[in-house]
Batch of 2 targets.
Target 1
Amino acid sequence: MARIRLKLLGGMKRLLGREVMDMDVNGEISLRDLLTLLASISNDSHNILNPSNLIVVINGREASLLGGLDAVIRDGDQVSILTVVHGGGCL
């Protein structure tokens, strides 16, 4: 079992109702699978979890530098997820 810490900012904080979330996952998990897991436990009616709407940082490095959606998240990693700010409606 692996434990990862999520720091949720902006729309992600509003979507999941908290700023910090510890998650237990089986071994390693890809960023793609993490976002799918988060979608399964949220009511994402505004499509906030669409990867093009997010900036994801894993242990201080932007996820695109680590493989994008295929980036591997391991036990003890810290993942910060924030929404990209767009004009228009507020979430």
Target 2
Amino acid sequence: MTFKIAFIQLLPGKDLYENLDKGLEALEEAAEKGADIALFPEMWSDGYSLPQDENALNKLAIPGDSEFIEEFRKTSAKLGIAVGITFLESSGSSKPLNSVIFFDRTGKKILHYSKLHTCAFDAEAVLAEGDDFYVADLDFERGSVRIGSMICFDREFPESARILMLKGAELILAPNACPMEINRLAALRTRAYENMVAVATCNYPEGHPDCNGHSTLFDGVPWSQDEGSVDMCVFEAPAEPGVYVAELDLDRLRKHRSEDIMGDKYRHPEKYGILADESVRGVIKGEFVHW
């Protein structure tokens, strides 16, 4: 059984309304290409624009039940395709959130996640943090897959994917907005390998500030009985804009998960107490330097 993921690797428009039109058009293209789900890059609603002025920022933020989100929900149901739509979310706190909402092919909201590891050392200091990682079962007619999400900088923390794996995620869908170079790609590969999960990342294309395309799908299967070690990167987009569709072999992933030794099979959580010890901070000294 396979599951098809569309990466909406497009340049955003100049405002919310243009992003709505471009996004809905891309969703139609994804459905025409046979995708089961379409994933947008990080904060599609405003093209990852983060004004540092509070008033300007709040003007860009929208609620999770806004007309923008509702149009994606309705179009998702009309086309029979799931969607992960990303946005700058207004919240009850003084700071907005960096969020994604997933609707299934019937338009039912199944998951709402806000970025937990914000880039608080940089422009995202103006944002609030999410509170937890969540999973949900996504029905795609031929079957179902348990999904979770992490957003951009979340991937740099092994705990993000680990928690999602422990909650049952088979596929992690990751909106992104940064240069996908060898080290970040290596982090995604590692998250897939150590947790036996597939990781799909959608980035903005070249031409968007500080982005370069290269959306990827790592299928989480590093071994083949016939070939030995294999490349888990089963899809990598070019730098150019496009709606790219990649296929995940769920049967192959599930067979690997049932037979291999990674994931949670040989963990020793009773020995990991230091990981949750709030007093252990500042081990690595120094200040952040923005390259």
